[in-house]
Amino acid sequence: xxxFLIACAAFLVAAxxxxxxxxxxxxxxxxxxxxxxxxxxxxxxxxxxxxxxxxDLLTVSVFQVPDLSFDEIRVDASGNLQLPMIGxxxxxxxxxxxxxxxxxxxxxxxxxxxxxxxxxxxxxxxxKVTIDGAVTQPGVYEMRGRTTLMQAxxxxxxxxxxxxxxxxxxxxxxxxxxxxxxxxxxDIRNGQAEDPVxxxxxxxxxxxxxxxxxxxxxxxxxxxxxIFQVF
Length: 231
Fold this sequence. Notes:
single chain; 231 residues; alpha+beta; 6-stranded mixed β-sheet; 26% helix; disordered N terminus
């Protein structure tokens, strides 16, 4: 991840130079990922495939057993949940479905017959996004639950006056590869494009108007918006 952020930082330094040029040979491109599949993948990771982290806020429901159900229960700093009857349960690193099955197994071994357990993530406190470029307050922000690109930019107090909102890059690691896609925030605002879900460790870079050519060079002149390519 450190190397990933360094690469993004180098991209920003080049952009701020205004007149600098970027060697296209430094950027490699692969076949684009279908944007529909990308959106579906993001939705999945934000819900059932999401890996629970320390300090996340969960909802635990045991069907017809209110004493074992919680509208809000927080994972402790060690990644554990403290539950009645079964005590400490490791939650960090598991998906909600995996944790549901583990709790059901523990309850079924000694206390309940065929327990039905549902775990959902109410607040993903462990997820962070880096927002940089032409925004009012660049920085690293903590995401609370499902966060879209528009909401992420709003966390940084919105674009600056010289921002090019039609060129907002999202850097992401997909399958161990560094990927980047460019989105048109103006179209998203107008309801003409879908507002993509931002995932933990994404890096959002809002372009500056005078550096349009540099962004195009960096992403190898993507054939369409909202398509990730290797960076």
